[in-house]
Amino acid sequence: MQTRLEAPVQEPRDAEEAVEVDGVRRRFGDLDVLDGVSLRVRPREVVAVVGPSGCGKTTLLELVCGLQAPDAGTVRAEPAVLMPQRDLLLPWLRAIDNAALAARLAGLGREEARARARPLFAAFGLEGFERARPYELSGGMRQRVAFLRTLLSGKPVLCLDEPFAALDALTRRELRAWLADALVREPRTVLLVTHDVEEAAALADRVVVLSARPARVIAELPVPRPRDEADVLAVRARALEALEA
Amino acid sequence: MIAALVLLALVGGWELYARLGGVSDLILPAPSEVAQALWDDRALLWSNLLVTAQEVALGILVALVLGFALAVALHLSGTLRRSLSPLLVASPAVPVVIIAPLLVVWFGFGIVPKLAIIALVCFFPVVVTTLDALRGVDPDQLKLLRTLDASRWQAFRWAEAPAALPAALSGAKIAVAVAVIGAVFAEYVGSSEGLGHLMLQAIPQLETARAYAAVVLLAAFAVALFGALAAAERRLVPWARRRPAGARRS
Asked: Buried b / exposed e across A145-164, counting CB within 10 Å, b at 16+?
């Protein structure tokens, strides 16, 4: 299943890397956004990209998802699906139909698509909310449904763009733990963009730090696994150090 | 409750003015006379109301379907949008009285010219509200659908059309009042039945109260039609009203 593209930046590949971004530049008019960014994500690895606001993190994800083409450099990635900052659930669909959207788009009937989504609702703490409409759900619940929609797309690479930025601090913590747990159950290749360094350190196997615009990679920090509070704080400190340098 | 009081005050004021203001009841009949006419001519009024109601309801339906289709076409094609926009904006400015005779020549005295006139005056608000809704669909939503491998048609089917449907119905609600006026006009020009035709005949027959009774019925029908469209909206697009309650936190 290939992402529909304007330019052929995605090729199916059998190499070791699930995502391979090489010397990518991107500019919008006079604005240099990405200035030679290189990045690799191995299959089933969770890589977090942190950086100051407006440094082009979202652009990077859209390049990986094939929604944009680079001005220079190459992007090679297995088929990737985007989970945007806002849940973007379709208000006219029930939660389960939103989660199963990819299956419907692939041509499955409603019941068949729902049957695929139902087990995940139970597994991910959403049981009983299958028939709810998005406006009946809390922000945290909507974000969970949005994540299920991403997961159920069946694509090997998940691009999460500040998935919890719109939530309050408490819900955010809760969802962070939920996501960590979800990725243990359903391991995927994840490229997570966030401006929250602690979130990055808590979720990722590796934290990539981008500079302010025009963005380049200024640090790559591996996070030990299993990690404890001290590891997270250490990575957080190093990332902040890199950002402030 | 308040609406009832306002109506009562209005009718009361009208009654007083008509009785004490020295206006001939050929010019302005009192509400009591209108009520009398409503009762006395009920069979006549009812049969003509059915004719006009059918014209208006069908005319709005035609406007809704054509307006929605045109809005979609304009949305999908930039060329079409650029070439048709001036015409579209100009269309409701064309006085119906000018083209109505032409429509009668083309389509005769049946229901078709009436539908054409009503649809003509109604489809503009439908097109405008629908087009705005189509263009207002969150671009991020469309991006998301693309990463889920949605085709252009699927993006329309899953995101744009459901967003445009409540807008089209809003357009139709706006169109209700002009639709009724359009129907009366159409009947003035060439018709042998309907409330417009009835009014046209009542005035020279010095049956002003009957004409006013027809107006009351038309107004009541407009209110009922508006309510029916609102009910259809609640039924067809239950999510649209709940949007504010489910306001996004971002």
From this structure: bbbbbbbbbebbbbbbbbbb
